[in-house]
Amino acid sequence: MAAGTAIQVQGVSKRYRLGQGPYLTLRESLSRLVHKGSVSKEEVWALRDLSFDVDEGEVLGVIGLNGAGKSTLLKILSRITEPTAGRSRTRGRVGALLEVGTGFHPELTGRENIFLNGVILGLRRSEVTRRLDEIVAFAGVEQFLDTPIKRYSSGMYLRLAFAVAAHVDPDIVIVDEVLAVGDVQFRQRCLGRMSEFAREGRTVVLVSHDLGSINQICERALWLEGGRLRLDGPSAAVVDAYVRDAVPRGAVSTFDPEPNKPIQLLSAAVSAADSDANDVLRRDRPFAVELRFVVRERIPGLSVAFILETSQGVRVLDEDWGPDMGGELLPAALPQAYSARLVVPPVLAPGDYVLVGWVGTQAGAIVQREVLAFSLLPGPVDTSEAVQRNRVVQPGVRWEVEEIEALDVTEPAADSHA
User: What's the pLDDT tens digit per position in 221-238?
Assistant: First the structure.
């Protein structure tokens, strides 16, 4: 590796064999020998011939549709799995935030789990003791520090897990979608922590569907498609190309069957909300977004959400429906199909937008993907100058300009000290 290079990936490929686990019992091994014809030999290449370098102190974002190979790449960089071909090298201590909460024990208290998880992530006990107050303050669980975490809410559990992982202080930080958990305030704290890493000169690799976060804290981005590197360049340019080319554009998008998934997306649609309106979406009219999906397992606390982002990843809408809104997605019989529909009022400015579909619980997303890209056209009274203004909202404001009694501007004001 050249001096100043933190990560070097050369011709990395990763192959998985479907239907073949890494550990077999004696009975399973004998059965495979007897019934060779019934064993699946289908191969899936999660990554193919991937090469790139990351400099020390660089913040790199990784984007792509589900199944593009993003998580597989991070597992290779974290030494959790080895590539089938090629070579991956890193310089310095690596801290991976891939599975939030790995190593936590429900019967232990928050304090005990901080020490346990800190040691698992590579800290000495003395280092955990020195950082304890900072970790607890970051997670906001001071009152429950000596309570077994099996009594924690999902949000408290996730905050504590991320707080521990975020204070390992490695040379290379690898983050996979953990910024999608927790409430808005905690998500901003997580982003702030990632920005601190960048300012401190640490190398950061971040995978996220939140394109706004990629643009906010990453100066460079990789776009993976089908396990291959589609584009490498400045974040703004890569995100824009990804939205224009990878996200389905139009009024309706349908998805391939995934019968083995607990939740499967069927389709997404965007349309004018008024029944008498045509298919053209204009910024001065409300429009509706719809997501259809199938639930195959009973998952308590299940919610569905719509996220709207501009083509540069600026989030302009984030609304969810579920237990917190008095709703429940717990069907009596399975599988059960649902249609979730939301009407957006005419407040957005003309431009290109991306619709993100989200189905999950407080513990995180089960399904999250960019499902549709669409454009809002200007209204009939919008001028070309108004359309070109740099804004993301354009509410229907009402101007009032009227003549008032003329003032004698030649006389000084009454309270003047001149």
Answer: 999 999 999 999 999 899
CA–CA dist 303, 403 (Å, integer): 53
Cis, bond preceding 335 (omega within 30 deg of 0): yes
| Amino acid (one-letter) located at 247 | V
Helical segments of 70-183, H only: 70-77, 110-120, 125-139, 154-166
Single-letter residue type at 372? L
Task: Name the DSSP letter for residue 129.
Answer: H
The domain limits of the chain are 5-245, 252-382
Residue 119: pLDDT above 90?
no
pLDDT-based confidence at 376, cuts 50/70/90?
A: confident
Q: How far is CA 171 from CA 75, 89, 94, 220, 340, in A?
A: 17, 14, 6, 18, 43
> What CATH superfamily classification does 5-245 receive?
P-loop containing nucleotide triphosphate hydrolases (3.40.50.300)
Question: Residue 66 CB: number of other CB atoms within 10 A?
Answer: 14
pLDDT at residue 392 in the model: 79
Whether the pTM exceeds 0.85: the reply is no
